[in-house]
Fold:
Amino acid sequence: MASVAQQPASPGPGGPGGSAQARRALPGWRAIGARVITLREGSIIVIALVTAIYFSANTSTFLTGENFETLLPYFAPFAILAAGEVFVMILGEIDLSIAGMYLFAPIIFYKLNTSVGLPLVPSVIVALIVCMAVGAINGIFVAVLGLSSFVVTLGMLFAFEGLSLIISKGTPVATPGGQPPLGTFGKVFGGGTYSELIWAVAIVVILQVALTFTRWGLYTVAIGSNKLGAAEAGVRVNLVMIRNFMLCALTAGLVGIFEAVRSATVQPNPAGPNEILLLAIAAAVVGGTLLTGGSGTVVGALIGALFLGILKDGLILQGVQATYLLFYTGLAVIVAMTANVFVGRVRRGQTGGG
Amino acid sequence: MAADPARSPEPERTPPPEEAVPPASAPDDVLRVEHIAKRFGPVTALRDVNLHLKKGEVLGLLGDNGAGKSTLIKIISGFQKQDSGRIFLNGQPYEPKSVDDARAKGVDTVYQDLALIDELSVYHNLFLRRERTLRPLPLLNNREMKREARRALDEIGINIPRIDVSVARLSGGQRQAIAVARTVNSASDIILLDEPLAAMGAKEGAQILDLVARLKEEGRVSIVMILHNYVQVFQACDRVSMIQDGAIVLDKPTAETSVEELTEIVVNEYRRAREAAHASEASVESPPAPA
Structure:
């Protein structure tokens, strides 16, 4: 991107050329600021930084290694969930069934391991394949049959939360491989202190690369931006949409298993996952992904999740009562979104000709 | 939808109906369309369309709104399938299964609704479905695409100051130019342009017509172009076909016809339709039968 701006101005001094000159004239630190703000993730980076600095200044415990470990489970699972959700949201769709997958995957994993007698890792793999199959069904309903993704995945959410209750008979059970002392399996799949963080960073990097630098990502954006146009250009719209719903279900199932291992319990209670679902969507939108589709960023979703995690952690450290947490989170989401929209306008005004 | 004759093993060629212009098939036709019909529920978009295109020829397709021009283009480009009738490409039966398939066979299209993706950059739009990758990695080779996009745009004389901005930032004419450039860039044999001059200023329209003229000089590609403006037809096309009411009513080299003749056909058709409507209104006293 940068290299093109430095090319000798081509004939026709249009709007874009003029703004490029203006940007070059900025002094150093302002230029950096301008560059950050032109990133899609710009505003959430700034907001997350400001929040972190605020809590560092106002509490003595925020900037400690110990607190970082506390912070991890507040954001790593959301980052993974949001990363998958971003791929669906860029299409202009939404997947609410991730909470169902989050609940359902560990129960399948548990049953396969204890009742069927499959080893741990194959049980995880089969459970995730089941999730992807559900994702494929979501995708077929939305892409091929043309149903609203909100309605389809809402139905799937209820159905799979219900199915989880039926299969588990509503009773929490001990997660196989998640009991102390943790073996390699437990440490890798969510039990280790940094396990979820490493997974989150790896998944976010891979999916961001897929989004920006592969045909799949390009077509995802194309479909979200102009579905008919993408189809006319020869993009296989249904295939891409189904694939993205499968990805989203996969990440949700994976996080469900991580959390079951980390907490050592397979919980069939849907209340927790429903809140997690909404926080994951909040992380994605706060991170700069449009609900209307056509634009989104996986890295932004990670930072969005980090922001929500920092906020929760910092408020707890400040001694804010637990009953106030949700209220503050709600305000923060609105403030962050307002900043996103505002910065987005500045960005378009700055780099665009029209 | 009855059995598709295009699929049945070599059906006898049905004689053309009286009212239609018979297909003037010649050995050097790169594209020949025979008796294409297409219905959308109760609406007949194409009744019986015959069309032919010689190598290096520019054919102007005229017709009022709703006459079926765009439907015809969409069938040839593989986006929709005809109910009956056959298409031949270089003398071979041609049944595109998809837009990709048609493109692989050398038929590429610029659509009226501009299949551009607002959120993608100019060069990504130019290379949509033909992306260059860093083989064997599945990653996009953006540098090469940018370079080639710049070269292709320069070559065809379209001035786009920056190719890494999203096309949403461009004017209507620039967008159209990119849509045309995308197709020209694709090394196809037959290019279908669905109203390439819509949403364009006079200067931008002239650029596109110049581009078409340059392609014609090269003689490599054959072009079917939907146009509204008769003057532009005479500027750019070798031959003109006019669709009315789902069938071709005129097929002549531009040198042998005139704006007056084309206008007269349209006006006559309009009068006839109006008289017919009046006549049926006057004669029918009983409640109208359901369509």
User: Anything to note?
Assistant: Confidence is low (pLDDT under 50) at residues 1-25 of chain A. The domain at 42-348 of chain A is CATH 1.10.3470 (ABC transporter involved in vitamin B12 uptake, BtuC).
